[in-house]
Here is the input.
Amino acid sequence: RGFVGRGRGLGATHVPRGPLLSGEPDADALLLAALARRAARARAVFLRIEPNVLEAGPGAGELDDALRRRGFVPAEPIQPRSTIHLDLTPTPEQLLAQMSKGHRADIRRAAREGVTVRSGASAADMDAFYAIMQETAARANFAIHSRSYYHDAWELFGGEQGERALLLLAEREGRAVATCMVFAAAGAGLYLYGGSTDEGLRAGANHALQWEALRWARGRGARVYDFWGIPDALGRAAAATSEEERAALEAAARSDPLIGVYRFKKGFGGQVVRYLPAYDRRYIPPLYELWRRRAGM
Here is the structure.
């Protein structure tokens, strides 16, 4: 799905973590042409795409070459470029065994602390989700979207039926203490949003939530679970060609604000991966840099 930002009668068209390319050059060319037409109708200064393709994956080099030939230039993505992918094809018992000892202990601790996990669908559940997101954002000093943004994302993926979106709430003594929203699409589970109260952190509620989310995504046919975002230095370190470069990047990652998030996610297992960059197609070059600076893109 693409988004159009507007200002002074002009626009910028953005396709986050997409489009979903087929790998067939002719079909992908038609899709890119359709996006270009949409951008033209929106009077876009530029079109930004963020291909859902790993930089070390098959066809990545060919795609990079093809996009450059079509006039696209590499840019910094808005979505996280580095992440952790967890293979969901093993059995749940095997997935549990692959976790760190500490994560397995935290899942058991959550049960001892009386934490229960359930799916949410009501307006009150969305309110509880958003209240925890606000508390988490204030504690960790990061920006969040509006309540309507999260509701629309959940609804777009069939959240009420639990088809491709799931809102989970971890509760203790009747209080919501942690929450997450996960999605399943194109053979992948996606952990996009989540947070917890201080009580939830102490009780291991986030670990219980992820354990439930992993099994839900697996049950929806997902073969991989994308934890969606770690320090990019770690993604670069995974592809480093020398021990010196790898060590320097890992050292840099230790001061990244996301290092705690990385440790939480990595404890479930999985492999560090990195996506291709974003690519911009400029339609009004004189306004391109100005728009990017003003829009924070």
